[in-house]
């Protein structure tokens, strides 16, 4: 019998792995800290790329379901000056390779594709320890344990499995998101809705940016990016939504009101999301019986690749295990060596993008980058 796989974390990476294993007849169990699939919102939109994320969807046998989730027109994008002038615009003509879907819906189709009982909800991992001979024990917060001969950490930035492989811990990148939502935007927030257009908006300046997406249901999702130390954000009382939004908006004094409205007119309290990252070249020596996927392996600042890479990791690991049914270690070694290379490439590309976003040549460098990309 093929080795059953124990997966910690029911995010997109862990679920893609479980689904690809299921396609190949390999059993797995996924342990997830959240008490249910609906325990919290699952974030906003994701652009799923044809060179990694969509390949994972194909490996999972879910392309038809995926196509049903795509939000038409959302690949349109525009870059605005702080005064509201449109500097660059690209329509969504349906030929782009990065269709947009809601993260929660993508997670839903993965969950629905797994046999009942695959995911064990309300099982928060507190740590893990090696037992020898490639076996490991996972200790849950409630004191329960599970022993496995193949353990996969798909448990994100603060992975409880990673210490089995690496002493690395995420460090603050120097920048954070502050998120807000505007609902019924075309009728209740028409100026902001017009500024965003049909897809996404970027309004960059040195060390700051207003970024917004048009999501499903006439919703605008704003990501305000600020390059500030954590202490600066700690001085803001985010429990006072109006005061917090006003303080963030002050960093954009003089900007067009339709842009600052994306901060001050939010229909939800602003949420702070600091960006953390692991070292770009994070890797480890092969440890029998355990590996990592997604942010647990290669956490980077948000760059549009995180979910795609996590899904691709899960698919590639599942395929490697299926290709080496009698040799788990060969499968893990093959998977890790390829994963280390692609994660470094993605992080290096991200550093290049961040130079354009927050460097001295904003917004000209960013426009040049998109013009080259779309030419």
TrEMBL record:
Q: What cofactor does this protein call for?
A: FAD
Listed InterPro entries:
FAD-bd (IPR002938), FAD/NAD-bd_sf (IPR036188), TetX_monooxygenase (IPR043683)
Q: Does the keyword Oxidoreductase apply?
A: yes
What is the catalytic activity of this protein?
a tetracycline + NADPH + O2 + H(+) = an 11a-hydroxytetracycline + NADP(+) + H2O
Give residues annotated as binding FAD.
Answer: 47, 103, 295
Q: Which GO terms describe its biological process?
A: response to antibiotic
What does the entry list as the binding residues for NADPH?
40
Task: Please give the chief subcellular localization of this protein.
Answer: cytoplasm
This entry carries the following GO cellular component terms, namely: cytoplasm
- This enzyme's EC code(s): 1.14.13.-
Top-level division of the source organism's lineage:
Bacteria
Quote the subcellular location field of this record: Cytoplasm
Q: Which residues form the FAD-binding domain?
A: 2-326
What does the UniProt keyword field contain? Cytoplasm, FAD, Flavoprotein, Monooxygenase, NADP, Nucleotide-binding, Oxidoreductase
Q: Which Pfam families match?
A: FAD_binding_3
Q: Which GO terms describe its molecular function?
A: FAD binding; monooxygenase activity
User: What family is this protein classified in?
Assistant: Belongs to the aromatic-ring hydroxylase family. TetX subfamily.
Know anything about its domains from the record? Answer: Consists of an N-terminal FAD-binding domain with a Rossman fold and a C-terminal substrate-binding domain.
* Assembly and binders: Monomer.
Q: What's its job?
A: An FAD-requiring monooxygenase active on some tetracycline antibiotic derivatives, which leads to their inactivation. Hydroxylates carbon 11a of tetracycline and some analogs.
What's the protein here called?
Answer: Flavin-dependent monooxygenase
């Amino acid at each position: 019998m093929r080795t059953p796989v124990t997966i910690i974390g029911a995010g997109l990476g862990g679920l893609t792995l479980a689904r690809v294993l299921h396609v190949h007849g390999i059993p797995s169990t996924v342990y997830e800290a959240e008490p249910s699939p609906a325990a919290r919102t699952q974030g906003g939109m994701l652009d799923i790329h044809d060179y990694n994320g969509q390949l994972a969807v194909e490996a999972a046998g879910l392309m038809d379901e995926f196509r049903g989730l795509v939000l038409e027109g959302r690949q349109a994008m525009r870059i605005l000056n702080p005064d509201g002038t449109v500097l660059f615009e690209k329509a969504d003509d349906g030929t782009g390779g990065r269709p947009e879907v809601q993260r929660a819906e993508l997670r839903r189709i993965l969950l629905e594709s797994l046999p009942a009982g695959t995911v064990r909800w309300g099982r928060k991992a507190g740590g893990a320890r090696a037992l020898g001979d490639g076996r490991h024990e996972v200790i849950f917060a409630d004191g329960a344990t599970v022993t496995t001969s193949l353990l996969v950490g798909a448990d994100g930035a603060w992975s409880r499995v990673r210490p089995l492989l690496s002493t690395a811990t995420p460090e603050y990148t120097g920048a954070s998101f502050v998120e807000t939502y505007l609902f019924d935007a075309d009728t209740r927030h028409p100026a902001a809705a017009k500024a965003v257009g049909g897809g996404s908006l970027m309004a960059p300046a040195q060390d700051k940016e207003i970024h917004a997406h048009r999501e499903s249901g006439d919703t605008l999702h704003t990501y305000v990016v600020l390059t500030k130390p954590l202490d600066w954000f700690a001085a803001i009382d985010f429990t006072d939504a109006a005061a917090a939004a006003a303080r963030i908006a002050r960093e954009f004094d003089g900007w067009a009101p339709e842009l600052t409205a994306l901060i001050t007119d939010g229909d939800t309290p602003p949420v702070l999301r600091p960006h953390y990252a692991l070292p770009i070249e994070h890797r480890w020596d092969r440890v029998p019986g355990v590996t990592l996927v997604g942010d647990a392996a290669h956490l980077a600042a948000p760059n549009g690749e995180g979910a795609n890479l996590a899904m691709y990791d899960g698919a590639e690991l599942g395929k490697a295990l299926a290709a080496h049914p009698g040799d788990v270690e060969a499968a893990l070694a093959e998977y890790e060596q390829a994963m280390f290379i692609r994660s470094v490439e993605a992080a290096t590309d991200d550093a290049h993008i961040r130079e354009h976003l927050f460097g001295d040549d904003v917004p000209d460098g960013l426009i040049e980058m998109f013009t080259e990309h779309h030419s």
